[in-house]
Amino acid sequence: MIAQLVEQIREKNAPVVVGLDPQLGFLPGHLLDDALRHNAETPYGGDEMAGAAEAFFRFNKEIVDAVADLVPAVKPQVAMYEQLGIPGMIAYWRTVRYCQEKGLIVIGDVKRGDIGSTSEAYARAHLGSVSIRGVREQAFGEDFATVNPYLGTDGIKPFIDVCNQEDKGIFVLVKTSNPSSGEFQDILTEDGRHMYEIVGEKVREWGEASMDGEYSNVGAVVGATYPEQAKTLRALMPHTFILAPGYGAQGATADDLAGFFHEDGTGAIVNSSRGIIAAYRKDKYAKFGEEGFAEAARAATIDMIEDLRRALGTK
Fold this sequence. Notes:
Elements: H1 2-12, E1 16-20, H2 29-40, H3 48-67, E2 73-76, H4 78-82, H5 85-101, E3 105-112, H6 116-126, E4 130-132, E5 135-137, E6 144-147, H7 153-166, E7 169-175, H8 182-185, H9 195-207, E8 211-212, E9 215-216, E10 218-222, H10 227-236, E11 242-244, E12 268-272, H11 274-277, H12 293-312
Parallel strand pairs: 1-2, 1-12, 2-3, 3-6, 6-7, 7-10, 10-11, 11-12
Antiparallel strand pairs: 4-5, 8-9
Helix pairs in contact: 2-3, 3-5, 3-12, 6-7
């Protein structure tokens, strides 16, 4: 699966993934009103959560229609949908399916992590399939999933097994973009290495069991807000593809990202969520207005792509 992502990045010359993280706080009012009104008119009407979930899907659909020709991948964050209960999870499922129909690779930002049969169940839910009386069925069917390594190999191996069976991939949390990530990830071990370096070494080791061309299906999440640590991890994990969140709204710039990539401009993909899907709320894109939120997202995506091409020298 990582080979497919690399190919699409090269074809579009855009190492960009759009985070589909809708929030009620920045959902266009007309979209929410219309979805709630439509839901009230259905046989199951009156459920506000179902109406909000419908609005989430419509919001995503318009964003995806506006950017699908520009980027190789999207990354829906499952928590945004889970807060709306079962209707929200249906909206998540519909979002995954619609994005794949548009030819986009879907990275499910689910951050799952457990052991044994539980970890295997998570892997099958998001990347694999379940056999029901001999018939195999998919639940969510993302192409990649984010995974928490805190439980060690017992938690990761079931995901790698499913990746190898289904040609899917994972991104393991190594050095995350949030300010307090250092409370654990930056701890120094007795031999003077940081904890994130130890995790990076394990990711490299795990990745050897699932190579797909020049990179492994076992990737790493490294926050764009930590460029110096990224340089260390890039050298430590030469065949590991990096998912870099934190560009834009979290403060990282394109110039911070050079160390995430190899000299040929490959090896990483950069995420932006609010900076793109809520772009219409920024002064720079205010001319599009609330009704033109999707056009604003497209303009913000183009600006991000050009910014990265400039920084990486790939124009």
